[in-house]
Amino acid sequence: MGGVGEILITLGVVLGLFVVWQLWWTSVEATAQAQQVMQEFEATLPPANPEPAELRTDAPPVPDPVGYGETIGTLIVPAWYGLTNNAMPIAEGTGMDVLDRAMAGRYETSQQVGDIGNFALAGHRRTHGNSFRHVDKLEKGDQIIVETATTWYVYEVTDHEIVTPDQVDVVAPVPHHPDEKPTERLLTLTTCHSLTLGEFGNDHRWITYATFVGWMDRADGTPEQVR
Amino acid sequence: MYAWIFRHLPGNTFWRVLQSLVLVAAVVAALFLWVFPAIAPYLTLLEGDPAVG
Q1: Which of B2, B43, B46 to mutate to test the interface with A (most CBs of A within 10 A)?
Q2: What is the value of ipTM here, to two decimals?
Q3: Which residues of chain A, if any, have pLDDT below 50?
Q4: Which pLDDT value is given to residue B52?
Q5: Looking at domain A3-217, which of 2.40.260.10, 2.40.160.20, 3.10.450.50, 3.20.20.140 is its CATH number?
Q6: What percentage of chain B exceeds 90 in pLDDT?
Q7: Which residues of B touch A201 (CB under 8 A)?
Q8: pLDDT band at B45, cuts 50/70/90?
Q9: How many domains in chain B?
């Protein structure tokens, strides 16, 4: 085998290893980091009352803003149990240093969880923990639950759309209407999507909208769908 | 190149194969831990748009 042939084969093997690294190893690392964040966050909290309780529909408490990269709470998508790393931490900000640790990141321009407006989150579709990989399996009425130090917030999926990456007003207080004053409490998930490659591409964005249906104090109980 | 390395490893064939495997593992570990993380931001095959994940 000539030297040139060896070099070409080596390059081919290294490219193959890169794909293995990106699709598999980044998730191994990110999932471990996310689990550590979850454990540190949960260690600061008293355990929630495990009994199911009625959802309250009065105005929920709104948490104070936190600094970039700090943990806001936990994102639980019951439809993803058994499919992905449920639950994942929610952290402040959408930089790659946040998202690459298999966390959901809050858009710093969006509203706080429970507030009137849009609590908008970004997450990876594939690689680095595959946070929002199964976003396409969410159907109308599926719950999206956010747990903070004091409160459970329950949202229900209303709709989704596929947009180009420049349509950043999907995370506006009123999606697509950045100048309107919000009246509803929304949650929006944004992640990568491709018209041709599905979950493997990033030429488009998959946007899932959910609307607030109720909340409960962690001391009072736990939403039925949380396991 | 690979044949040259293999010939210059000490010991019988068994030990040479074992040492080859250790060398391969070391190279793969170096790629996974340092090289790939360093070059990933420049290879936007799957991700890379900092706007959203």
Answers
A1: B46
A2: 0.82
A3: none
A4: 45
A5: 2.40.260.10
A6: 51
A7: 46
A8: low
A9: 1
Residue of A nearest to B53 (CA): A124
Could you give the CA distance from residue B53 to residue B48 in angstroms, rounded to a whole number? 8
The predicted pLDDT at position B44 comes to: 61
> What's residue A227's pLDDT?
82
Query: Which residues of A belong to the active site?
Result: 124, 192, 205
CB pairs < 8 Å spanning A and B: 63
Tell me the β-bridge partners of A56: A215
Question: Hey, what amino acid is at A135?
Answer: V
Check if A205 contacts B (Cβ < 8 Å): yes
Q: Where are the beta strands (DSSP E) in A136-203?
A: 143-147, 151-163, 185-193
CB atoms within 10 A of CB A54: 9
Query: Could you give the CA distance from residue A128 to residue A99 in angstroms, rounded to a whole number?
Result: 8
Note if the pTM is more than 0.90: no
Segments forming the whole domain that contains residue B10: 2-36
| Residue numbers in B near A202 (CB within 8 A) | 44, 46-49, 52
How confident is the model at residue A2, as a pLDDT?
A: 72
Q: Does some domain include residue B45?
A: no
Q: Is B1 on the interface with A (CB under 8 A)?
A: yes
Rounded to the nearest angstrom, the minimum Cα separation between A89 and chain B is: 15
* SS3 state of residue A98: helix
Chain A contact set for B45 (CB, 8 A): 22
Of B48, B47, B30, nearest to A200 (Cα)? B47
Is B47 inside any structural domain?
no
